[in-house]
Design a protein that fits this description.
Layout: H1 2-8, H2 44-60, H3 82-103, H4 110-113, E1 117-120, E2 123-126, E3 132-137, E4 140-144, H5 152-160, E5 169-171, E6 174-178, H6 184-217, H7 225-258
Antiparallel strand pairs: 1-2, 3-4, 4-6, 5-6
Length: about 260
C-alpha cells in the first residue's frame, strides 16, 4: 500500500493542463512501483485518475454544473489533434461573424453587394468580379456590367434574391439598385436570416464534433475506455463552448437589427 501511494504522489502535476501549455517530460515510475497499479505509472495514469476524480465530483455535487475536462493535447496526440479540432470549430464561428458583417446590415452600402454570388453559364462568381459597383447617391447603387454584359440578367436576379430587400432595375448593361427605407418589416426579416445563418453554422459545428468523435472511436481497441470517454467529453465541451459563442453573436446581431 505504501508503495502504491508513492506512485500516486507523482501524478497530480499532470492533471488539468491546458492544451496550449508546454508539456514537460512525464515523470518516471519510482523504484518499486508495481506495474499493475492503474495500468502502470505511465501516460495512462492521469486520464484514469481524472476520470475517478470527475466521478467523485459528480457524486458529491448533484444538481451542480458537471466538472470540466481539460486534457493535455500532447498526451493524446497519437489519437486525435485537439488543437486542430478547436481550430475547425473556431473557423465556423469566424464564418458566421463574416456572414453577419457582410450580409446582415440595416444600412446597404456598395460593399454589401460585393460578395453576392451570381450564377453564370461559366460557374459561380462574386458580383464584384463581374461588374463595377459604385454608389451614385445615398439612395442609389449602380452596378456596371459592361465587362460581362451576358451576365447582366443573372446579376440582377442574384441581387433581387440576396435577402437584402433590394429590387434592382436593369437598363442595358447598367443595374440600378435603389436603397430602400429601413422598415420594421425589413429589420425583422434580417433578424430571421441571422437566426437561419446561426442554425446552419451550428450544423457545421456538429459535423466537426462528429468527425472528431468518430476519429477517437477508431482507437477503442487500442486505448482504455476511460481515455475514450474523456476525449469524447472534451470534444463535446469544445462544441458546447463554440455553440454558446454563436448564441451570443446572434443575440448581439438581433439587438442591432431590431434596434
Amino acid at each position: 500500500m505504501a508503495t502504491a501511494l508513492r506512485c500516486v504522489r507523482h501524478v497530480p502535476s499532470l492533471l488539468y493542463r491546458s492544451s496550449s501549455a508546454a508539456v514537460r517530460e512525464l515523470p518516471q515510475a519510482p523504484t518499486g512501483c508495481p506495474a499493475s497499479l492503474l495500468g502502470g505509472c505511465g501516460q495512462r495514469v492521469p486520464l484514469v485518475l481524472l476520470t475517478r476524480q470527475l466521478a467523485t465530483k459528480k457524486a458529491k455535487g448533484k444538481g451542480q454544473a458537471p466538472a470540466k475536462v481539460n486534457i493535455s493535447a500532447a498526451l493524446v496526440e497519437d489519437i486525435i489533434n485537439l488543437e486542430e479540432t478547436n481550430e475547425d470549430m473556431q473557423a465556423v464561428i469566424e464564418a458566421l461573424k463574416e456572414d453577419f458583417s457582410r450580409n446582415l446590415s440595416v444600412r446597404t452600402s456598395p460593399g454589401a453587394l460585393d460578395h453576392i454570388i451570381v450564377m453564370t453559364k461559366d460557374g459561380k462568381f462574386p458580383l464584384n468580379q463581374l461588374g463595377q459597383i459604385s454608389q451614385k447617391s445615398p439612395q442609389l447603387i449602380i452596378v456596371n456590367m459592361t465587362d460581362f454584359p451576358e451576365s447582366t440578367a443573372a446579376a440582377a436576379k442574384a441581387i433581387r434574391e440576396s435577402g437584402m430587400n433590394l429590387n434592382p432595375e436593369t437598363d442595358g448593361t447598367i443595374i440600378r439598385v435603389p436603397i430602400p427605407k429601413v422598415t420594421r418589416e425589413h429589420r425583422e426579416s434580417l433578424a430571421k436570416l441571422a437566426k437561419q445563418s446561426t442554425n446552419k453554422s451550428k450544423e457545421a459545428l456538429r459535423k466537426v464534433r462528429s468527425k472528431s468523435v468518430n476519429q477517437v472511436k477508431k482507437f477503442k481497441s487500442k486505448v482504455s475506455e476511460d481515455t475514450i470517454w474523456l476525449l469524447e467529453k472534451q470534444i463535446q465541451q469544445m462544441a458546447d463552448s463554440a455553440a454558446a459563442e454563436m448564441d451570443k453573436l446572434l443575440a448581439a446581431k438581433t439587438k442591432e437589427l431590431l434596434g
